[in-house]
Design brief:
The protein is 57% helix and 20% strand. The chain contains 6 helices and 5 strands; from the N terminus they run αααβααββαββ. The termini are far apart. With 241 residues, the protein is of the alpha+beta class. It is elongated. Strands 2-3-1-4-5 form a 5-stranded antiparallel β-sheet, with helices on one face.
Length: 241
């Protein structure tokens, strides 16, 4: 009887020890899984033990699959948003000069500007009203785009910035963003190149049966306020003076 009691007591002690060991391991695994769930957004979040063969191991593996899928989704979304930002920036750079675009994107105080010594070049097509009356609106747009594309290159080559297109007129500025120290000379050289470009373009127009282009240009150097003007709904970067 004494031996039976002793054996029973030893068995209970062993069972208790095993239960404590198993419980301790289980609690550690649960704690690690819980910690991973709490900090799963962090880059160096603890990884739960997924080597277990029980239900807790299945839960840990399912959690890791979910986490990896979320990370992949986040990376894809981040890449998509970056692509969209670059596309918007690229499109913005076509609507305004890329130098002006970068200036606008880096501006904290939108309205206002700074006084600068710069050169402005205006050019327009002589007799454009009567010229456009002989063409359809679609042909007029194509005609203007070819003209603008031809003269714009002359402005960019001399470091100028195309500020705006006004119907058949073009306004370019030199020196407002510090891109040229000798901006007056750059504007004159640009105008001379524009004359040659228009001559070449007229040769193409003649062979195509289109009317030739005659342009007038004006250049002025002086102090202007370069900055952003407009209303709360519509802003524009330009020069005043």
């Amino acid at each position: 009887k004494k031996n039976f009691i002793l054996i029973s007591a030893l068995i209970m002690i062993v069972v208790l020890i095993l239960t404590l060991i198993f419980s301790n391991q289980l609690l550690k695994a649960i704690s690690k899984l819980q910690n991973s769930m709490i900090h799963f957004r962090e880059e160096n979040a603890p990884v739960p033990d997924i080597q277990r063969k029980d239900e807790l191991g299945d839960m840990a593996r399912a959690f890791m699959v979910m986490k990896n899928e979320l990370v992949e989704f986040h990376v894809r979304e981040l890449g998509r948003k970056n692509d969209e930002k670059e596309e918007i920036k690229h499109t913005f750079g076509k609507i305004v000069d890329p130098k002006v675009r970068d200036y606008l994107l880096n501006q904290n105080n939108l309205l206002g500007g700074e006084l600068v010594f710069a050169t402005i070049l205006f050019a327009d097509i002589r007799g454009f009203t009567s010229l456009s009356e002989r063409m359809t609106p679609e042909k007029t747009v194509i005609f203007l785009n070819r003209y603008f594309d031809s003269v714009a290159k002359c402005i960019y080559e001399e470091g100028g910035i195309i500020n705006k297109y006004i119907g058949d007129a073009i306004m370019a500025v030199f020196g407002i963003l510090g891109e040229s120290q000798n901006h007056a000379r750059s504007a004159v050289l640009s105008a001379l190149k524009m004359r040659k470009a228009v001559e070449a373009l007229n040769s193409e127009f003649l062979t195509e049966g289109l009317p030739i282009v005659q342009i007038g240009m004006g250049i002025h150097t002086g102090h202007v306020l370069a900055g952003i003007i407009g209303s709360t709904e519509r802003l524009e970067f330009t020069v005043i003076g």
